[in-house]
Structure formats: structure tokens, C-alpha cells
Amino acid sequence: xxxxxxxxxxxxxxxxxxxxxxSAIKFKGEAYVIDPEQCTECKDAFDTQQCASVCPVPxxxxxx
Amino acid sequence: MSLPTISLDSxxxxxSYEQLLATAKSGxxxxxxxxxxAKPDEMDSxxxxxxxxxxxxxxxxxxxxxxxxxAVAPAxxxxxxxxxxxxxxANESRPGVVSEKLTxxxxxxxxxxxxxxxxxxxxxxxxxxxxxxxxxxxxxxxFERVAREIPDIRLCLSTNGLALPDHVDELADMNVDHxxxxxxxxxxxxxxxxxxxxxxxxxxxxxxxxxRILHKRQMLGLEMLTARGILTKINSVMIPSVNDEHLVExxxxxxxxxxxxxxxxxxxxxxxxxxxxxxxxxxxxxxxxLKTLQDRLEGGAKLMRHxxxxxxxxxxxLGEDRGQEFTTDRxxxxxxxxxxxxxxxxxxxxxxxxxxVAAKSDAVGTLKATGSGKSLxxxxxxRGGGRINEHFxxxxxxxxxxxxxxxxxxxxxxNVEQYCLGGRGADxxxxxxxxxxxxxxxxxxxxxxxCPKDRLAEAGIRATDAYGYDYIETAISALYAAEFGxxxxxxxx
Lengths: 64, 493
Ligand code: SF4
Ligand code: SF4
Ligand code: SF4
Prior knowledge:
The complex is a heterodimer of chains A (64) and B (493).
Chain A: E1 3-5, H1 15-19, E2 25-28, E3 31-34, H2 50-54, E4 61-63
Antiparallel strand pairs in A: 1-4, 2-3
Chain B: H1 8-13, H2 17-26, H3 45-51, E1 66-69, E2 78-79, H4 104-117, E3 121-126, H5 136-149, E4 154-159, H6 168-173, E5 178-182, H7 188-194, E6 197-200, E7 203-206, H8 207-227, E8 231-238, H9 247-256, E9 261-266, H10 276-280, H11 287-297, E10 315-317, H12 340-370, E11 376-380, E12 397-404, E13 407-415, E14 420-421, E15 424-425, H13 427-436, E16 442-444, H14 450-458, E17 462-464, H15 472-484
Parallel strand pairs in B: 1-3, 3-4, 4-5, 5-8, 8-9, 11-16, 16-17
Antiparallel strand pairs in B: 1-10, 2-6, 6-7, 11-12, 12-13, 14-15
Helix pairs in contact in B: 2-12, 4-5, 7-8, 12-15
The complex binds iron/sulfur cluster (3 copies).
């Protein structure tokens, strides 16, 4: 029950970070990463996963 | 013809403050019309107050003032088919492209470093990559910090408009008095061809549905800005056979809603940039197509013709980019703002501008007196200050003016490859300069060698340095009178 970011595709725009309702996304070291402990897949908050909906690069925020 | 009494050049190049102040103070006022406002005709004075130091809003100000952009807001809430957000290359200079994303703190240090070094600095903008209104926290933090340190700097931002209505009140509170909205359509069916998706209300919308929302939000944002007296410039990307004809309609809509300037920019599409349009072979407009459309729009919302489609981290006068001198690694951690250079520069500019206005009106009088119906197209090499003060071989761009009995109007600029590097002219580069100057009657510059002059002459372009350091308009009117008037050539020629 978590999403992940394919770091090699990420543009590091940070949009997912501030749209995530669970504060699961952080910039760590060199890349944005999703903390699987915190990610709720946006259940109970929104119909679609916010990170995947806002990300400009297809297939970058994907189910882990 | 008035000679420069004070040199802006020396002001911007001196390093020590005492020296700078001495230069500024030594300049007496030689102009009879000193103190007259440099306000162009037909402009409401409240508007003029807002734009007079803004190089992007005022054609006149772009000779004197510089802008800088900081890329602090990389996140975006829409996708445009002319943008590839993965692309980022240090050798690229395409709008929106940026090599350094900054945190608000890094941005503050950079603004201070530039303000200390570039006295012409008057405007700080946040203009992509990304959307300043969507990535709002960073935009706001940057503006607040900069305004606290440098209270007289003008703040502006660019946005696609989608999140704009949410922040108009805060923009007004922060004294942001200029906003640029990119509006490429008012018809959602056309919008869908340009913007494949948007992220709005926590969900991704696509196609016509997306374009419809974007359109509504853009119009609402524009109306809200107008209601608060915030000047709004509209940028439109001209995409042949997609929205080129439609921009006439866009121009009408935005004018009705109070937009102050309309800037039609050519689509830049190169497959190497990896944008959707680049990959699908969508071409950009030719210079002629762009000018034809701009001419058709004349009479609608006022057009901007001096846009340089700057990089999102550009620094300096329009047409120059000193961004590379101010990268984060070159800026020390504890840097303090020193207002002296900017203050001295402003003092001189105020005087110089009064003088320039007088020179301009003399020039227009000279043109009208010739009684000629002909027109001349003139390219000018300038480094700012409204004067012909750049060497032909050092120019990276020429500013193009058209002189006719109606007056002198700025019609655009031509980018060229710098032909003279390290004192030696390169032949191939000269060829490309000559191609870029196609259609120009006369080139005015501060200095030109015999060889390039002869080569230009072979191509049917005259070039002269006889008017070096004069005001652009003064020189043009003298040339025009010499060409078409009954009076003999002015003494300087
Ligand atoms: S799926 Fe939702 S909760 Fe999980 S990281 Fe993405 S935005 Fe955050
Ligand atoms: S939205 Fe996508 S591209 Fe932007 S930081 Fe998140 S994963 Fe990277
Ligand atoms: S609004 Fe700007 S950053 Fe966003 S996709 Fe369009 S061009 Fe790119």
C-alpha cells in the first residue's frame, strides 16, 4: 500500500511533495522519495493518487 | 545634437562607490527640458508611474533598467505542448529554460549580489520553469525576503493563470504590481491542442474539459488583477495553424478585460528539445508571419515588440544575460545589500531621461519637416542608455527601428552571432550577421572596421559609425533628413 518515485525519470520539480496529503514525500539527499510508512495511496483523501496526477512525467509516481 | 554630458557606461562599469558618485555628480544638466517627465504621449500617469522603470513593460525603460529572474518555483500544474520539463541544459537559451533552481534563501542572496553589481537592476521576476502561483509558498517566501532587504525593487511574476485567482489578494498585499499571464486561446477546442492536461481541484483533467477550466480561470484571474489595479501583460505563443488566426480573438478578449500589453511570441520548436510540438514536427512561425500578425493586432491591446524571450534565470538589460556571473557557487553566504550604486545610477538616469525625451521630440520634428513619404529601416548597436554605443563586431543583437514621416518606431530586434571575438573578425560569423540583417537599410554603431563595412555594402546594407554615442532617435532623424529631406546632411555625418 504505497507509491514510489522512479528517481531516474523525476525532474525534481517538487509538485508531488506539496500535493501529497500524507506528507509522505521528501527530498532526501539527491532525490524525492516516498516513505512507504506514510503513503496512504491517498485513500480517504482523494479519488486519485495526487503524486501521480500532478507529476509531469508519465510513469514516474507508480505503485511500489 | 547633444553630446553625452554624463556617461551611463562609466556608471555601470566603475567598481568603487566614490568613483561612481563622482561620475554621477560631475554631470551637469545640459538639457533645456530637464525635469520633464519621460512619459510617452497618451499614457495615463498612474500607469506610467508603474511601468517607467520596468524594462519589460516600457519600451523606453528597457534602455535603462535591468531585470532578473530567479527560478524558485519549478512545480507546475499544467502541461504545455511546447514545454519539456525534463530538459535543462546550460547551453540552451530558450524561454523557461534554466540551469539553476534556487531555494528562496539562495534567491535572496543572488538578488543582493546582482543589486550590488548591476545598478540598472529594477525588477525581480519569477517566471518558470514551473508556475509561480502553483508553487506559491516558494514564490511568496522569495518576494517577502527580497522586499524586506531591497524595498524599492519591483516584483513581478509569470503564470499560466490556473492558480492565479487563489493568490490575487496576496499579490496585491505584497505590492506585486505586474503580472504576466500566458494565454494562448479563448476557445477550449483550440486550447486542447496546446495544453493536454491540467491539475486542478486535486485531479488531472484532460482535453476540452481541461482547456475550459484553464480558460475560465485565466479570464477570472485577469479580471481580478484589473479590478485591483495590477498591470497585466499577456503572453501568447503563436503556433501556426493552431492558434495563429485565433490570437486576434484572444487580443480582443484580453483587451476588454483590461490587459495592458499583449506580447505575441513565436513558438520555438526544435525536435532536440523533446517537446511534444518539437517531436510532432509542429513548426514555429517565420519572422514575417509573426510581424504580420503583430501588425494586424495593432489597435487592440497594446503590443510588446521588445520581448527577448529571456531565460528564466536571465540577469541584466534586455538582450543581455549575465546569469552565468551570478551562479550560487559564486555568491558568498553572508552578503549584505549596498544601495549606493543603484541610488547613484537612478539619480543620473532621471536627468539623462529628461535629456533623451527632448532629443526624441527634436528628432520627430526633423522627420516631419522632411515632408517625405518614404520609410527607412535602421538597425542599431546599443548597450543601453538609448544611445548608439556598441561596436558592430561586439553586438549580439541589433535593435531595429523604422523611421517615416509619422515618427520613429521600435519594431523589434535581430539576434546575431557576435562577429568579433578577441579582436579578430571571423568570416563565417560575418556572413551570418549579414543574413540576419536582411532587409535593413542602414546599420548604426559606435565603431565599425572597413572590412565588415565593405562586406555589408556588397549586400546592400550601409553601415556608419558617424553617429557613435548619439541618442538613437537623434541619429535616425539626421539620417532620414539626409536621405529624404531637402536640407543638407547634418554636420556629424
Ligand atoms: S499516493 Fe498519495 S499519499 Fe502516497 S505519496 Fe502519492 S500523494 Fe502521497
Ligand atoms: S512530481 Fe514527478 S517530477 Fe516532480 S518531483 Fe514529484 S516525482 Fe519528480
Ligand atoms: S506553464 Fe510553463 S512550466 Fe508549465 S508546462 Fe507550460 S511552459 Fe512548462
